[in-house]
Design goal:
By secondary structure, the protein is mostly beta strands. It contains 3 helices and 13 strands. The strands form 3 sheets. Strands 6-7-8-12-11-10-9 form a 7-stranded antiparallel β-sheet. The chain has a 3-stranded antiparallel β-sheet with strand order 1-2-3, covered by helices on one side.
Length: about 200
């Protein structure tokens, strides 16, 4: 088995992730067999400072601006990579990224259900915060009103990045494949220089 290609974002929570040449295998505590996830497509943000992998069928679009935003969609899931070319305060960046919702704040419930909040750590020279919660939207988005949102915010190395994963809450609870796929895409995020 080859060494991991990149430091995994989800490793902050103790989730074991091995990124191999063409796929990732994600193991979760308490799960007996890992689920293999194929992530053959490689994408970068517009500034070419962050790259990540997705299944071949996913659609990826960038929205240049301040902050720079890259969005990937597929298999009913959404991942957004928010990048700023400067180091911001970790707490303030994390709170800002937690408010990057699928609909305007006026169309969401104020009652957010937290799975966990502000779990911190370090990844090389970057400081990391991780939160996961469920947001209830007034109107269904892609068929679901309740979405689990996970935010992993990193500050260091002269930049600030948030990797945000969205999954319909029901799919997240019921499907090991959904959990494995979303975590594998989030775990595939790498920073320049590429390893």
């Amino acid at each position: 088995m080859r060494a991991p290609r990149a430091v995994a974002l989800v490793a902050v929570l103790g989730v074991a992730v091995l990124s191999l040449a063409a796929d990732a295998v994600v193991s979760f505590a308490g799960e007996k067999k890992p689920v293999a996830v194929d992530l053959p497509s490689v994408h970068t943000n517009d500034s070419k400072t962050v790259r990540f992998r997705t299944p071949a069928s996913w659609q990826v679009a960038t929205r240049p601006g301040q902050p720079e935003l890259t969005e990937a969609r597929g298999d009913g899931l959404i991942v957004r990579i928010l990048h700023r070319d400067t180091e911001l305060g970790l707490d303030s960046l994390h709170v800002e990224c937690m408010l990057v919702r699928l609909a305007p704040e006026s169309q969401t419930s104020l009652d957010v259900s937290y799975e966990y909040d502000f779990v911190g750590g370090e990844m090389g020279d970057r400081k990391v915060l991780d939160s996961a919660f469920v947001v209830h939207y007034d109107d269904p988005i892609d068929g679901s009103r309740d979405w689990r949102q996970r935010n992993v915010s990193l500050v260091g190395g002269g930049e600030s990045v948030c990797a945000i994963g969205y999954s319909p809450a029901a799919a997240w609870k019921k499907s090991k494949v959904t959990r494995s796929l979303l975590n594998a895409v989030l775990a595939s995020v790498e920073f320049r220089p590429w390893r």
